[in-house]
Amino acid sequence: MRLNRFLAAAGLGSRRHCDELIAAGRVTINGKVCTNFSAQAGARDHVKVDHKLVCRAPALTIMLHKPGGFVSTRRDLHARDTVFDLLPEKFSRLFNVGRLDAQTEGLLLLTNDGELAQRLTHPRFKVDKEYEITLDRPWDPSLAPKLLGGIVLDGQRAKIARLRSSRLRVFALSCGRE
Asked: What is the pLDDT of residues 71-92, one digit of tens each?
């Protein structure tokens, strides 16, 4: 694992901040100062910053039921409540896997495991995501073909693989972006 990523995973800050620590000569690997940005830190290496041993945090993933009214971001420019405001301080190094918009409630995964997040969110892995939508009016079945044609999310078309409906609910199973 690249040194800046290792340091960031240990909770020392962003990768950019960790690059600054490396450039300043404050990082040692196995007793030798390391200013090489492409250096790899292995499981058996002793990595220190300012003469203090650094250990990578173990992988942690939690499930959170996101209530409506909270945004799925670390900080919000509009001073809205975020899902991270719901967590104890000991979970401050986690990040969300995917997003739910502010008024949506449901399951949200929070993790410090970048590989897990990549496998769950990247379209190449085709991980299905299921959404249940409660309507404020009866469902009009004539809208199904239009919905199955795909919807635009963040400027990209997302395809809905299957659609089930009842009077006031729609269940959509999405296989990701086209």
From this structure: 988 887 887 899 999 999 888 8
Same domain, 90 and 113: yes
Domain boundary among 54, 69, 86: 54
Q: Are residues 68 and 110 in the same domain?
A: yes
Segment 117-150, tens digit of pLDDT: 999 988 889 888 888 888 888 888 888 888 888 8
Of 32, 54, 76, which residue constitutes the final position of a domain?
54
Spatial separation of the C-alpha atoms in residues 12 and 49, rounded to whole Å = 9
Across 67-125, where does the E strand assignment appear?
95-97, 106-111
- The pTM assigned to this predicted structure is 0.69
Give the number of C-alpha atoms closer than 13 A to the C-alpha of residue 4, restricted to the C-beta side: 15
8 Å CB contact between 29 and 38: no
Contacts of 64 by beta carbon, 8 Å cutoff, 6+ apart: 83, 86, 87, 107, 108, 109, 110
For the annotated catalytic residues, the residue numbers are: 101
